[in-house]
Amino acid sequence: MSAAPPLCLGPLPIVAASHFPIPRGACDTHAHVVASDNPAYPLVPERSYTPPPASEASYLAMLNATGMTRGVLVQISVHGTDNRYLLEVLRRHPQRLRGVGVVDPSVSDLELEAMHAAGVRGLRINVLFGGGIGFDAMEPLAHRCAELGWHMQFLLDARQLPDLLPRMRRLPVTGVIDHMGHMPVADGTDSPGFQALRHLVRDHGWWVKLSGAYRISERYDDFDDVTPWARALIDAAPDRMLWGSDWPHVHIPRMVNTGRLRNQLADWAPDAELRQRILVSNPERLYGFAAS
């Protein structure tokens, strides 16, 4: 018998205070809700980890504590293609929340239309954790996204990008890369992976989530080695950068403080007008929020 998926730590109950004024309309573009305590929403057996519950109420409390007016929920891999809990939360907060779903290419038009009505604005490819949908589905799902005006989101290791560029450049929709490429910043901004990521952002209109610094850094818990990496991405396309907390911070060995992660943005984007774009105007455009 295979070993049970490892248990995750829960998020810290305290959120550090902000080091900069949070603008009205600010959006956390990457977080998850998890119904692991409810057998009505089973976890997929092929998952890579087992997270504690991350309820709708806890998620909204985190948004409030970090000063976020809006949020984007991303379907977590442990729920596979069962988007029901995500959609229920989205439907209860149509002005405040948007979502990114996970579906199989055989999904019906009716289901996608219902997801759109609930607030979903993209589909996720995830090749790093069990329960995700992989690259084989990329082209067929991209065409389904194009019909709805959606984007595609990618959880991958950017060291995979050089080989994937020919396929990605042909996609009929824009792409969003999770967690600044989810590769070690120790590889450097001259590495082929980072250069491929920068090429997609600068030359092909792709977006990047400035999130998950703790997943690519070797310096717990200030993660200051990520600053040059984040600044290089921002310099490449400031109008296609997004910020996300990655709450509840699953599958990591030491828990991080969500407020301290938000405060990194003051170092990555010292100018208030630039932070306004990253936190407010950029997510308004991508996710279809009403202008604040």
UniProtKB/TrEMBL annotation:
Domain Amidohydrolase-related: from-to ranges: 27-289
An example molecular function term from Gene Ontology annotations: hydrolase activity
Membrane spanning stretches: none
Pfam families xrefs: Amidohydro_2
InterPro entries associated with the record: Amidohydro-rel, Aro_Compnd_Degr_Hydrolases, Metal_Hydrolase
Protein name (database record): GntR family transcriptional regulator
Organism of derivation: Alcaligenes xylosoxydans xylosoxydans (Achromobacter xylosoxidans)
Species classification: Bacteria, Pseudomonadati, Pseudomonadota, Betaproteobacteria, Burkholderiales
